Amino acid sequence: MFDGLKDKLNKFRKNVEETAEEKSEAEVEAGSETESEPKTEPALEPEADEPVDATAEPATETGKTGSGSEPEPEPELEPEPASEPTQTDAESGDSEDSSGPSAFKRAAAFATGKIIIEEEDLEDPLWELEMALIQSDVEMSVAEEMLETIREKMIGETRKQVDTTGELVEEALKDALLDVISVGQFDFDQRIADADKPVTIVFTGVNGVGKTTSIAKLSEYLGNQGYSVVLANGDTYRAGANEQIKSHADNLGRKLISHEQGGDPAAVLYDGVKYAESNDIDIVLGDTAGRLHTSDDLMSQLAKIDRVVDPDMTLFVDEAVAGQDAVQRAKKFNEAAAIDGTVLTKADADSSGGAAISIAYVTGKPILFLGVGQDYNDIERFDPELLVERLLGDE
Amino acid sequence: MVLDDLGSSLRGTLDDLRGKSRIDKADVDEVVKQIQRSLLQADVDVGLVMGLSDSIKDRALNEEPVAGTTARDQVLKIVYEEMVGLVGDSTEIPLESQTIMLAGLQGSGKTTTAAKIAWWFSKKGLRPAVIQTDTFRPGAYDQAKQMCERAEVDFYGDPDGNDPVEIAREGLEATADAEVHIVDTAGRHALESDLIDEIEEIDTVVDPDLSLLVLDAAIGQGAKQQAQEFEESIGVGGVIITKLDGTAKGGGALTAVNETESSIAFLGTGETVQDIERFEPNGFISRLLGMGDLKQLSERVERAMAETQAEDEDWDPEDIMKGSFTLKDMKKQMEAMNRMGPLDQVLDMIPGFGGGIMDQLPDDAMDTTQDRMRQFEVIMDSMTDEEMENPQSVTSAQIERIARGSGTEEETVRELLSQHKMMDQTLNQFKGMGDGDMQRMMKKMQKGGGGGGLGGMGPFG
Q1: Per-residue pLDDT tens for B354-373?
Q2: Pairing verdict, β B210-216 and B154-156
Q3: Does B136 fall in a domain?
Q4: Domain shared by B191 and B146, yes or no
Q5: Looking at residue B392, which CATH number applies to its domain?
Q6: Which range marks the domain in which residue B76 is found?
Q7: Do residue B345 and residue B197 come from a single domain?
Q8: Minimum-distance CB partner of A324 among B220, B226, B364
Q9: What are the CA-CA distances from residue B110 to residues A310, B102, B115, B206, B332 (Å)?
Q10: Helix or strand or coil: residue B432?
Q11: What is the ipTM of this complex?
C-alpha cells in the first residue's frame, strides 16, 4: 500500500524542481540588469504590473487587502519583512496590482540570490498532483484541500538559490499530508491500558468491508497483550453471520455471546458487556451488521445501539480499496455513532491508500489499524508520521 | 445511483447552453470540465476520463451540428454517444442452460449476488442451482445456504470440505438436474497469487460459459488492476456492480468493463434476493442525462403487475384505463408499488424525479409515505366490497364504522377517500390513451411536470 502514491509525490517534486531550474536559468540570462526589464523577461515570468495577473492570482493571496495602495501582497510569507516596508512606498506608484510578486520584489530577490515561486510555475505540476492524488483514491475535496496547503506554502515563497527547490516542495508536501492524515492521534494501546475494565469496543461499517474478520484479528492482537476478550455478535441480520463469527471464536478459543438471527443487536452487545462484568473479562469486541449509510432505518438502529451500549470506543471499518465514496460513508457513520478511529482493511489489495487519507481527514479521527491479509495476525498499527516519512523518503 | 451527480451537474452546465445557437471553445471546455470532475468523483479511471473528455471536446468543436438542432442538443448528443460508447451494451445472457462463475474481491458481495442471479433465472422460468465453493471464509456455507432458501433455488455446498476444486466438481454432478449452474467462489484479490492459482483450477474444472467479476460500487482506482488480473487468469465476460443502493457511483465498474473489454451484466441494489436488475445502457444513460430511466421502471412495473395479477386473475390494471377507478384498483396499485421495492428507489427511476426533486423532499418523506400506505391498506381491509367498489357513496356512519374496525382515526379514512378521489380525477386525464401503456403514461406525466406525476402515481401525500 501507498507505493503508488509515493511514486506520484516524487514525480510532483521533480516537476516543480525542473520548473524552478528553468526559471532560475532564465533569471540568470535575464542578466546583469539590476532593475527588472519587463520586455526581456522570459514568458515564465508574469509581469507584475499587468492587470491580467491581478485576476489570475488573488485567490491565493491571504494577506491582500485588495487596494492598489497596498502593493506588498504577502507580508507573512516574506522572510525578510524588515527590508521591505521602506521600499513599499517607492513601489506603489508604478504598480496598480496588489497581488503577485512585484517586478521590484523579483528584482530584489534576484539581487539577493533568490527566486520566487509563482502560481504559474506550479499550475501544471499541481494539476498533475491533483490527478495523481485522485488516482490514488484521495477524495476530490480532500485533494483540493491538500493542494491549497501546498499553494499557500510555496507561492510567493522566496528561496536562496543554494537551497534546493526539492526541499521546499518536500516541506510543503509533508505539511499538506500531515494536515489531512495526522488527526486526533492517540495511543490506542495506552488508552486500552488506562480504561476501566471491561472496555467495550463496537465496530461499524458498510457491508463486506471486513468488520468480523477485523474483530477476530483485534481479539488476537489484544489477547497477545495479555487481555481477556469476549466477542459479541450484534449482526443479527446477515445470513451466516453467527456461523462466521462462531468459527473465529472457536479457532481463537474465545467466548462468543450471540442471539438468534433476527434478535435485537443492542441486546446482544449489552449481554456481552454483562458477561464481561461478571466474569472479569477485560475487553468486549462487539460486531454490528453491515449497513449502507443510505438506509435511514439501519443508521438509526446503529444510533440506538450506540445509546444503549454506550461503548468506550467505536471503530469504523472500511476497506483500502474504497474510492471517492469513502468520505460519504465515513461521515454518515461518524454522525450516527461517533467514531474514535478507523480500521482500514484489505490494505494488501491496494497500492495507493488514498482512502486512508480521505477518511482520516473527513472524520478528524485517526486511522488506527491496517488489515493486511487473511491470517489472524495480519493486522498492523498505523502511524501517520511514519507513513509520511516513507512517502517522501528517498528510494 | 450510478453517476447521478454527473446527471445533475451536467444538466446544470448544459442548461447554460440553452438558447445558444453556436458553442465556442469556452462552452465546450466548461462542459468537459464538469464531465471530468463528475466522472472522477464517480471513481472512473483517470486515464479513461481524460480519453473520454478529449473525444467529446474534439467532436463538439469539429462536428457540424445537424441542421435545425440547437447547440445544447448537439453537445447532449455527443456526450450521450460517447457515454454509450464507454459503458457499452449490457452483457448478453441467453435464457438457456449454462454455467456462470462469480469471482471478485473479499466482501464485494459474490455470495449474495449468486443467490440473486439464481432468483433472476428462476423468474425467467429456468431452474438454477448455486454451488458454493468458498471453503475459506467462516460462515460462507451457511450464508449461501440461507440466501438460496430465501431465493427458493437449489443449493450445493460442503460445510466440511476444504478443497474448492473438488466441491465444484461434486457440485456440478449433484445438481446435474439444474439448467443454470452458478458457481460462487471465495473472495480474493489480484495480488494473492496462490488464490489466483486456485481460481484458475476451479475455472478449468467448472469450464464456465461466462465468468462474471463482482465489484463493489465503492471500489476506487484499484478496480483497474483487479480487473486486469482477473481478466488474465480466468477471462472476465461481464461485470456486476453491487451495493448501488448506497451513494457510491460505480465508476470502478466502467474501468473494469474497459479493461476486460466486457460489459455490465447486473446491478445489485439491496440486501434481499430480489434486489437485482439487468443493466440497461440506454436507460442508464437516459437517466444520467436527466431524461429518466423509463425502460427500467417499466420493467419493474410490469414484473410487479404480473405478480399481482397472478394472485388475482380478475384484476386487470388496464381496466383502470377503460372504466372507473375503484378503491380496489387503488389497493392493487399500492400492492404493486410495494412489490417494486422501496419507494425511494422506484421514484428515483421516474422521469423528473431523480436527483434534484428527491433531494428537496424531507428525509422522512419516503418513510411517512410508506407508513401511510400501510395505514390505508389496513383501512381498506375493514371495508366491504360494496364500499370498495363505490367509495364515493360511503356515508359518515360508514366512515365511523371503518375507523373503529381498522383501529384508525376517522380523519385518516377521509384522507384515504379524498386521495382516491384525487387519483380518480388524475387518471381521467389519461383516459383515451388506449392500450394503457405504462411507458407512455410516464411520458405524459413528465410533460405535465413533476407535481402532476406525483398526484397520478398514487397516495404520495
Answers
A1: 444 455 555 566 666 777 77
A2: unpaired
A3: yes
A4: yes
A5: 1.10.260.30
A6: 4-87
A7: no
A8: B220
A9: 34, 6, 9, 17, 35
A10: coil
A11: 0.72
